Each structure stands twice: as C-alpha cells, then as structure tokens.
Amino acid sequence: MLDGIASRFIVLWGWRRLLVAFVAGLLAALALPPFNLFPVLLLSLPVLVWLIDGTTPGLRWGRLAAIGAAAGVGWAFGFGYFLLGLYWVGAAFLVEADIFGWMMPFAVVALPAGLAVFTAAGMAIARSLWGSGPRRIFAFAVGLTLSELLRGHALTGFGWNTLGYALTATPVLMQVASLLGVYGLTLLAALIFASPAALSGAGSRRARLAVPLLGAALFVAVVGYGAARLADSEMGTVEDFNLRIVQPSIAQETKWLPENRSPIFTTYLELSDTAASPDAMGIGDIDLLVWPESALPFVFDYEPEALRAIAALLPQRTTLVTGIQRIEMDDTDRRGYRVYNSIKAIDHRGRIGAVYDKVRLVPFGEFLPFQDTLETIGLQQLTRVAGGFSPGRQRTPIRAGSAPRFQPLICYEVIFPGAVISSDDRPDFMLNVTNDGWFGDSPGPWQHLRQARLRAVEEGLPVVRAANTGISAVIDAYGRVTHSLGLGGRGVIDAGLPKPLEPTVFARWGHWPLAIIMSFCAIIALRNEWR
Question: What's residue 287's pLDDT?
C-alpha cells in the first residue's frame, strides 16, 4: 500500500512536483512555534523524500540532471516552509506604512525565496549521496542538516526557524540540545520523521523495516534522555538576589513620536517602582532592574534629566540595565560619529557602569548591505538611522552592580547556537533584551522565545529576557520558563535568578559531536555506491 502512495509522488513531473513540494513545506512549518504540530513532519518529510526519488538521471546530463531536479524540489519545499514560517516579518514594514509599506509584499516573498536556496543546496547534496534503498534516508538527513548549517553561517547567517526547533515542543524534547545543539536536533528530526519513507522502494523487507525502527528508537531515546535529565533538576536560585523585568508594551508605531517621549519614560519609571504584589512593594528589594532593547525613545546621552530621574528612582542596592541607542563621536566615520544599539548599566548615583554594543546587527533592519550605495538611491533600513548602526567590537560578559556576570545579547543575537558564549569566558547567565513590537501579535515573538530557551539548554545557563511587548521571561538552565509575562501584556516580572549548570557537552565541544555523527550517516548512505 505504501509503495502505491509513494509512487504517486515519485512519478510527478514539472510544475506538479514543485507544487506538491511547496505544499509539503507549508505543512512542515506547522511544526514550529506557536503551532508546535511536529507530527506533521511524518507526512511532509516522507513526501519530500519521495519527490527526490522521482528526480531520476536524464539521458543527456545523467546524474547532474537528477541533482538539479532535486535542488528544484528542495527550493520549492523551502519556499513553502519559510513563507509560512516567516510571513510575519512583513508586519515590520507596516509600522511606518507610508514609507516602507510598498516593500512589504517583496520582503514577504523575497526572504523565503532567498532562504530556500539553502534548502535547494541541501537537497542537491542529498541527491548526490542518494541510493535506491533505505539508506537514502541518511543521505536526506545529511543534506538537510548541512543546508541548515550553511544557512546559519553563510554571509551574516540567519538560522531562524532551523528545522530542529520542530523537535522542541516540550522541555523533555529540548534536552538533547545540551549534547548536540539545535543542528543536532535537525539531524535527528530528519532521521525520525523521514524514516517512514524507507518502507517504500528497493531493498529487503528487513532492511526497509530497520530504518523506521531506528527512527522510533531515536525518538524514544530523545524522550528518555530528556526525562532522565529533568528527573533531578531542582537547581534553586542565587541566594539573596532579586530581579525585576519591566515590560511596558509600547506600540512601535507610536514610540518615536515626539509627543510620546515623556509619557513613555514616565511609564518605565512607574512600572519599575510598582507594587507587583503584597510581597513586592516596589523597587526597594530589587537588585537588578531590566528594561528592554532601545527602551527610551530618545538618545539617552543627550538627556541628562533622564539620567537624574533614573538615579532618583534607584535604591542603593539596585542597578538598572537598559537597552539604549548610543552615539559615539568618531572622525574615521564619514558622518563624524557612530550609532550603536547598546546596553548600559546605571547605578543609584547615576553612574554609568558597563556598556555593551550589539555585535551582530540585523540586515535591512539595522543596516543595509552596501549601505552608502543603497542610501544614494533612497533606500533606508527599518530603523531609519542614517548610515545604519555600527557593530560592537566584541561579545564579552559584563557586570552590573551585585549581579553575577552575564552575557548581554541584544535582540536576535540570541538565535545563533554556539556563538553566544565564549568557552574561555563563561558567565553565570545570559541577558537578552529585545523589541518584538515590530511584529505585533504574530508567531515571531513565540519563535524568538523558543530560540532563547534552546540557548539556555545548549549552554547550561539561565536566560533573563526583557521584551518590549513580550514575551518577557525568566528561563532556567534546562530551558524551562519559570516566570513570564504574555505577549502584549504590560507589567513587571519579579523573580529570583536561576543558578547555572556545569558546561554541557555542547558548551564544551560545540558542533564536533554532530560532525562525527553526520560523517557516520554519510558513510552509511554511500555504502552501496562503494560496493
């Protein structure tokens, strides 16, 4: 029966094959947050395998023709996957619709189309390793994982919605990331969910059953490891240390209007000292106060009154860490100055402590590739900072008052596995400030939160997350959300700081264990060819 179903996809040709691949990609995107319907991959990934089965060598170009056809199938699948998974990016172009609205349809289509090139490359690699038997599932998994690794590192890198996040719907499923990272989860997801396709095609009945049984065993192993790791995971919080996260929920389209500068700043001050509960009567017992990315709607360095107001707010024991826009005079820049997306620590005397400048900027959001050229023809990045933001020089942990050392991560800096923490300078926690208000009530903030949770699991470090419109959260080193404030809510989170774990396997060895497993999978896939 399964052979009959598979053959219906294998014989598809031309636009029909591409259309089915596109629909399979759309279906696969439902495995991502906030939908978390990961069982759909048991349908979409086998269909993708069968479509690649149908990319047979041509009479003229031979195997090269099959690789090219597989790339086309991969592109169509990737286009569907990224179109549904990232359609919400278009909301950012509607914040100032009179300026950027015309670009929205192009961005919604162009970004998925460009990212799908990596999926195309992955399926081309897979087809070059392809065989007719069950071992082709290993070729598929290797190709798909390589495509995601390439996407996360090429050019500036954009690893958003890596397929491995589909295997993170619960804390139990997340824990394997402490060993292999999210790209390891991608490999596992490909092997697990594509394995039913091995029941069709060439090979003995025993061989065809072996791969789906392996897939089932891998899933059981993922669940078993996660359950065992969480079984004894009471870790507690740092003694005598309290933090408060402020979530003001300021609409992005009104934030930078001149008449709103004072009311927004007042909102921050009032929320910071609010009585959140009978046990939390204001800011007096708070050690670390956190405001989100670019919290203040003005250039902080040019507003001394704001610094005085903050100093008046803070008790002696309290330090504020806030996202700001920072300007630094620099004669080497054509503008005579540089603009940074930064974090500053401020104490009760108004003294500026540590400063961190965002290292990895968002393309087209904070800077334009070929900035000078594109500005001459009238294009701007979404933040509308003339000349764009400048990147910080290095990512290093900092201190703020009595808080343990932490690694600042501004906005999407938190999405890069293996690149958020230096193994030579390990902090006690990660602090992620962001402004997801650009994307409204969409899947974007949920996807962003999930990625922050995976970094906690990978590194064995808690994450303190302050988001303008949400979702703000305190995340322990196992990726569990201990406190949160929902999307669009206004208020504060009062919480203790979860303790860190010892460095995980992933924190110590990075992607090397994954590289060894992928090499083994490639050897299995090529075994018939060598014979």
Answer: 95
